[in-house]
Design goal:
Helix content is 31%, strand content 21%. The protein is an alpha/beta fold. It has two domains: 160 residues, Rossmann fold (3-Layer(aba) Sandwich), CATH 3.40.50; 162 residues, Dihydrodipicolinate Reductase, domain 2, CATH 3.30.360. The protein is globular, with a radius of gyration of 20 Å. The mean pLDDT is 96. It binds NADPH dihydro-nicotinamide-adenine-dinucleotide phosphate and N-acetyl-L-glutamyl 5-phosphate (X2W).
Amino acid sequence: MEEGKEMKVGLLGATGYSGAVLYSLLKQHPNVTHIDLYGHHKETETAEFLDAAIPAYLNEHLQLKEFNAASIMNDDDVLFFATPSGVTKQLARPFIEKKFPVIDLSGDFRFKNSLTYSKWYNKPSAPDELLQAACYGLAEFNLPASPYIANPGCYATATLLGLAPLVIDNLIIPDTIIVDAKSGVSGAGKKPSASNHYTFINENAWLYKLNKHQHIPEIVQQLQKWNANIPAIQFTTTLIPVTRGIMATIYVKAASNVTLEKLRRSFQKHYQHKKFVRILTDGVPSIKEVVGSNYCDIGFDYNPATNTIVIVSVIDNLMKGAAGQAVQNFNNLFGFSEEAGLPSLPIFP
Ligand SMILES: NC(=O)C1=CN([C@@H]2O[C@H](COP(=O)(O)OP(=O)(O)OC[C@H]3O[C@@H](n4cnc5c(N)ncnc54)[C@H](OP(=O)(O)O)[C@@H]3O)[C@@H](O)[C@H]2O)C=CC1
Ligand SMILES: CC(=O)N[C@@H](CCC(=O)OP(=O)(O)O)C(=O)O
């Protein structure tokens, strides 16, 4: 598709955190001429409600339209879903049947096996035949193979980008992966809860969903595509008192004859042409270096005393972990410049 093509886009979930970020990115996208926002409450379909829902967007006077698959396919060229898990499995069928382009930020279409979803999300899955029509959109590695793109989870993105080169190049012992991941509070969405209450999470750190996090099977599914010998991973998620950001600290035993130089060459080989992955030549990144951007920054080291490789991978959960990667997938799907609509620098300081 030509670079100058003009697109009308639809978005369901603009009143949520990742939907609001997506709106701001699409608004500045050079190929997007019109954005239709869709809602799910009859009583909230007014501009006044939306000004109140996102005070930061006051004066945008955003108006929600009623969600209707037929009119969306008539009025728009592509649809983004920024809705909680369990929503798109009920709404996706007409779009999939008509091969209408969709980018889905939720977990509903990330798995190939419906039993995996029902086990880890504790709810019924979309039907298997619909799951097969979706493709997993880890943008650096998977160019869109179908018009329904399942945007990856935030922790999964940071972890997979940190591990990919070494897994693909067989530089690790496959059954030794341990991931200690930390996330800011916006990762849980806008709905208030006991664990994102200020008095609980301020000056605190809380490890949650121990051995039960829904991104474990998502990560393993993709790792096994790269290397079928990876049996499982040990993976923990800890909520930390920052608004945005994920840090995945990955520990893995090195295969024989691995050196720091070999690791450097592997990261360099896989990421030298990837605009949104920055490999540090020395040291490890911190969360603030990527907040507000679509970058994944990666640093690593090898400790010969323990034969352990440590990789630190950081992203902004709402950008590379959600809305930013969704725009990257949109660009890849329609043949636009991969950077179109995405900020070139993080927020600093
Ligand atoms: N937050 C993050 O960092 C990341 C989120 N994701 C995924 O992106 C999706 C959105 O997450 P997030 O922005 O955090 O969520 P939020 O809870 O902040 O927002 C959810 C949005 O979905 C709308 N919504 C809720 N229920 C329905 C429904 N039944 N039908 C239609 N719309 C509905 C809400 O509308 P209303 O306000 O009117 O109820 C709101 O606009 C989730 O699937 C999440 O897992 C993925 C990666 C990272
Ligand atoms: C801090 C926090 O709570 N983060 C969320 C990540 C949200 C997400 O990406 O979940 P999906 O797989 O449903 O898209 C969590 O750990 O569940």
